[in-house]
């Protein structure tokens, strides 16, 4: 972690959006699982038949893309590959087929963080289960928005975990942003209300409200998030303007279940996929998008402030299928 917030923020205005380099690094394990095994098939000169397609489909499923997406990709390949045996040209066709299928699910260019800014302050509620890297992701977002030249304020509405207040205070100090917090055990909705009131009074551009991690299947904890939303809306009927669900990419298909429950409870508008650099299951992005239609807005690709990127479908597809020699 860079101990100098000024230097980090200055760097942020230039480097926080690296649509290929960071994603490529973050998807390294997923790419190795996916293309490495496909290339192994080519090396073995496996006859292109139904069994070969099944093998490719299994590889795709192993990356957590989901059964439906894997089937869609293999059907695309069925029409592309005509030869009896694989060749280098067939491998290129496989890669193009995977890329096109990914883009078909993920859609075209999405909105950027700057595009989504509305209201003053623009209120972003951050939710997720325990251990997903949520507070770390909040710190990265604060650094990123400050790097965009925005005045940022953090609201520490995680009042249950003993070390939560201290942890987010460290992130706020390092990012060079202000923090509103109360004592341990305070009402999270009251903290969120005070944070928005302070953000309005200070003319902040962005308010990030960090909430306590909670199990997605605990109804009373989900109700608490709804209470926080109601508290924010007393001061701004449109708040929160965004609700970001932080998912740990390592959870794979369990992340889909988490996303579904949070979506029903708190109207999730986008995802922050954290710890992408530590998983071989980056395909969960596609599975969630296909099943729930929730866009991925950000990905975390490391432990440093600058290891955050705005998600781009084309860059994701390129990073997932890129060959080493084209890096």
Give a structural overview.
By secondary structure, this protein is α/β, with parallel strands linked by helices. It has 2 domains: 23-106, SRP54, nucleotide-binding domain (Four Helix Bundle (Hemerythrin (Met), subunit A), Up-down Bundle); 113-326, Rossmann fold. Helices cover 53% and strands 13% of the residues. It contains 14 helices and 8 strands. The protein has an 8-stranded mixed β-sheet, with helices on both faces. The longest helix has 19 residues, at 88-106.
Shape: elongated
Output the CATH homologous superfamily of the largest domain: P-loop containing nucleotide triphosphate hydrolases
Helix/strand class: alpha/beta
Identify the CATH architecture of the largest domain. Answer: 3-Layer(aba) Sandwich
- The CATH topology name of the largest domain reads Rossmann fold
Which sheet architecture does the biggest sheet show? Answer: 8 strands, mixed
Q: Domains counted in the coordinates: how many? A: 2
Properties at a glance:
alpha/beta, Four Helix Bundle (Hemerythrin (Met), subunit A), 2 domains, 14 helices, disordered N terminus
Summary of the model, kept short:
The protein has helices at residues 5-15, 21-26, 28-43, 50-62, 67-80, 88-106, 113-116, 134-147, 164-175, 188-202, 219-235, 254-266, 284-292, 313-321; strands at 122-127, 152-157, 178-180, 206-211, 242-248, 270-274, 296-300, 308-310. With 327 residues, the protein is of the alpha/beta class.
List the topology elements.
Blueprint: H1 5-15, H2 21-26, H3 28-43, H4 50-62, H5 67-80, H6 88-106, H7 113-116, E1 122-127, H8 134-147, E2 152-157, H9 164-175, E3 178-180, H10 188-202, E4 206-211, H11 219-235, E5 242-248, H12 254-266, E6 270-274, H13 284-292, E7 296-300, E8 308-310, H14 313-321
Parallel strand pairs: 1-4, 1-5, 2-3, 2-4, 5-6, 6-7
Antiparallel strand pairs: 7-8
Helix pairs in contact: 1-8, 3-4, 3-6, 4-5, 5-6, 6-14, 8-9, 10-11, 12-13
């Amino acid at each position: 972690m860079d101990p100098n917030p000024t230097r980090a923020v200055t760097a942020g205005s230039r480097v926080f959006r690296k649509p290929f380099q960071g994603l490529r690094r973050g998807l390294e394990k997923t790419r190795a699982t996916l293309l490495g095994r496909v290339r192994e098939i080519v090396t073995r000169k496996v006859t292109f038949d139904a069994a070969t397609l099944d093998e490719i489909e299994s590889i795709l499923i192993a990356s957590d893309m989901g059964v439906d997406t894997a089937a869609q990709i293999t059907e695309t390949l069925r029409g592309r590959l005509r030869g009896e045996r694989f060749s280098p040209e067939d491998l290129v066709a496989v890669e193009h087929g995977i890329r096109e299928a990914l883009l078909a699910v993920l859609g075209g260019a999405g909105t950027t963080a700057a595009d989504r800014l509305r209201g003053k302050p623009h209120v972003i509620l951050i939710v997720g289960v325990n251990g997903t890297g949520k507070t770390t992701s909040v710190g990265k977002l604060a650094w990123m928005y400050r790097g965009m030249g925005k005045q940022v304020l953090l609201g520490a509405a995680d009042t249950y975990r003993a070390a939560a207040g201290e942890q987010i205070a460290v992130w706020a100090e390092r990012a060079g942003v202000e923090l509103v917090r109360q004592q341990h055990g305070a009402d999270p909705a009251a903290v969120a209300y005070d944070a928005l009131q302070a953000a309005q009074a200070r003319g902040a551009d962005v308010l990030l409200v960090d909430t306590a991690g909670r199990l997605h299947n605990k109804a009373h904890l989900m109700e608490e998030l709804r209470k926080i939303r109601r508290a924010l809306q007393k001061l701004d009927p449109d708040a929160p303007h965004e609700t970001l669900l932080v998912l740990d990419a390592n959870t794979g298909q369990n992340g889909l279940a988490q996303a579904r429950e949070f979506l029903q409870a708190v109207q999730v508008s986008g995802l922050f996929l954290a710890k992408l650099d530590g998983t071989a299951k980056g395909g969960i992005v596609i599975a969630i998008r296909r099943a729930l239609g929730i866009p991925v807005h950000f990905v975390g690709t490391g432990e440093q402030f600058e290891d955050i990127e705005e998600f781009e479908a084309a860059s994701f597809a390129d990073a997932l299928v890129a060959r080493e020699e084209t890096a």
